[in-house]
Design goal:
With about 500 residues, the protein is α+β, with helices and mostly antiparallel strands. The protein folds into 2 domains: about 15-155 and about 205-285 and about 355-380 and about 430-493, FAD/NAD(P)-binding domain (3-Layer(bba) Sandwich); about 160-185 and about 290-355 and about 385-425, no CATH class. The protein has helices at about 25, 40-50, 80-90, 130-135, 140-155, 165-175, 205-215, 265-275, 385-405, 475-490; strands at about 30, 35, 60-65, 95, 110, 155, 185, 185-190, 220-225, 225-235, 235-245, 250-255, 260, 290-300, 310-315, 320-325, 345-355, 360-370, 375-380, 410, 420, 455-460. The strands form 6 sheets. Strands 7, 14, 15, 16, 17, 20 and 21 form a 7-stranded antiparallel beta sheet that branches. A 5-stranded parallel beta sheet has the order 9-3-2-13-22, covered by helices on one side. Strands 1-12-11-10 form a 4-stranded mixed beta sheet. Strand 11 and strand 12 form a beta hairpin. It is globular and about 65 Å long. The relative contact order is 0.19.
Length: about 500
């Protein structure tokens, strides 16, 4: 008989699927970098720091106001289909409907969770149009460099719909009908097969991918259910943050560098509540005007293997909007369902119009109403300009033209007319409230995301975007966040 195997040596245990640190422990640490928020911007900063600072002893901390919700993008979960996805995302416990008290921005929501909105985003990832980028305080060549890095780490390609007859046929119809820029979606989706033991189960990208990469590069501290309420600053330099746990107990976290990535509404809220001065903080609030429509295609026009419909008609010099086409029906993605055979195929049209970046569109704090953490609540003054309204009309007309070109007559759905303007905030593309600039009179941060007047305080989320044109913002936010991290690394060194 062989000898009995000895017991396995004791190891530490995990209570969750990601290592967490208690806020009480984080209060004892002097951090080199502290990141507030874990959406697209915060996770990108973390990834770049962990990738570039593997061997040194820099201490990195991350705090997230929300709890653990999902370990991956919701569309990667085998238990969710489109209906259950919508039921989860629109649950007011998850997407908190703050717009109910904001008449000018009625569809605004807050989502508190590790990974933020990237757990539910569309994954459509176009670059900003060159006409937009030329107005940014970042050289075009430099933006191209960081776009390349972001697209690689996010697995952005047009392969998701490649070979799908429904996409290929409609792209040809669109190009022949004058929409020459139409093409399959640039989608952040990992389509590599699982091979040699390396798992590729997270098809649709989320911040959790970047957390996974980061964990396998080096250690960092992460606390959830930890609300940053103030940035602490002395003599023009950041020294840390005040944060509160779910029991509303305050903690003071020390750091030489702080990165706010709490979103385009929460980040300026924190800055204003911290007494940080800046004429542009909260101002130049922008979004996309959002036209929604549905149409029906004849099934007989396509081959047996339909595939997925995902087409982007991008912004151009002449066209201040973009249009996205999804389908067939609700089957742009599915896990274990067998899509039924149908005589007609549904198409969803989403048109995003450019909105002017105007000082008078802004968020501010309502001192008469405070949240459970004692922070004044957000209020918004917002309206569409006459130019914005002209573009909305252009988008509506273009959607109708697209419908005709692809032979998909518009139909009413869910009690809506065949084409309608969604309420402000429905696009989830709020931006501009801490926009970067070369001039503190019309911006909040430098071109590298550092807040004017507070050394070591950075912003890395949608709020830094200056005019964003008509494109989905996430790829650009990730690109700029990586650039900000590289700049921080030079300072840390």
């Amino acid at each position: 008989m062989p000898p009995a195997c000895p017991p396995a040596p004791p190891t530490g245990y995990l209570d969750q699927w990601i290592p967490l640190t208690r806020i009480e422990e984080m209060e004892k640490t002097d951090y080199d970098v502290l990141i507030v928020g874990t959406g697209a911007g915060g996770s990108a900063v973390l990834w770049r720091l962990c990738e570039q600072l593997i061997a040194n002893g820099k201490r990195i901390g991350v705090v997230e106001a929300g709890d653990l919700l999902l370990p991956t993008h919701a569309q990667n979960l085998p238990t969710l289909n489109v209906e259950r996805f919508v039921q989860l995302f629109t649950n007011p416990k998850i997407s908190i409907p703050i717009g109910k008290t904001i008449p000018d921005f009625p569809a605004a929501t807050m989502l508190y969770a590790l990974g933020g909105r990237t757990l539910f985003w569309s994954a459509v990832s176009p670059r900003m149009h060159p006409s937009v980028l030329r107005k940014w305080p970042v050289p075009l060549k430099e933006m191209s460099y960081y776009y390349n890095i972001a697209e690689e780490v996010m697995n952005v390609s047009r392969d998701y719909t490649k070979g799908s007859s429904i996409t290929e046929v409609l792209v040809n119809r669109l190009r022949g009908g004058g929409f020459t820029e139409a093409a399959g979606f640039p989608l952040a989706a990992d389509l590599a097969p699982t091979k040699y033991g390396q798992i590729h189960s997270n098809v649709f990208f989320s911040a959790m991918d970047l957390f996974g990469y980061s964990l396998n590069r080096r250690s960092f501290d992460l606390a959830v259910k930890t609300r940053a309420v103030k940035v602490l600053h002395e003599n023009g330099k950041v020294v840390g943050i005040e944060a509160m746990n779910s029991e509303k107990k305050s903690f003071f976290l020390k750091s030489k560098t702080v990165v706010l990535s709490a979103g385009a509404l929460k980040t300026p809220q924190i800055l204003l509540h911290s007494g940080i001065q800046g004429r542009a903080i909260g101002h130049y609030l922008s979004n996309h005007s959002f036209i929604m429509a549905h149409g029906m295609l004849e099934r007989a026009d396509f081959s047996e293997l339909l595939g997925a419909l995902g087409i982007l008609i991008p912004q151009t010099d002449e066209q201040p909007f973009q249009i996205q086409l999804y389908g067939p029906g609700a089957d742009f993605w599915y896990s274990y369902e067998d899509p039924p055979l149908q005589k007609e195929l549904g198409v969803r049209f989403e048109g995003f119009g450019m909105v002017e970046s105007r000082f008078q569109n802004h968020m501010y704090l309502n001192p008469n109403n405070r949240d459970e953490y004692g922070v004044p609540e957000i209020q918004i003054d917002f309206s569409y300009s006459e130019k914005d309204k002209e573009i909305i009309e252009q988008v509506a007309q273009a959607v109708r033209r697209v419908s005709g070109v692809i032979k998909a007559p518009l139909v009413s759905k869910n009690g809506r007319t065949d084409l309608c303007l969604m309420p402000a905030g429905q696009d989830n593309h709020v931006s501009g409230t801490c926009r970067m600039s070369n001039d503190s009179s019309d911006g909040v941060t430098s071109p590298y995301g550092e807040v004017f007047g507070v050394a070591g305080l950075f912003v890395a989320d949608n709020s830094v975007l200056p005019p964003m044109g008509a494109s989905n913002p996430t790829l650009s936010t990730v690109s700029l966040a990586i650039r900000t991290a590289d700049y921080m690394i030079t300072k840390l060194s």
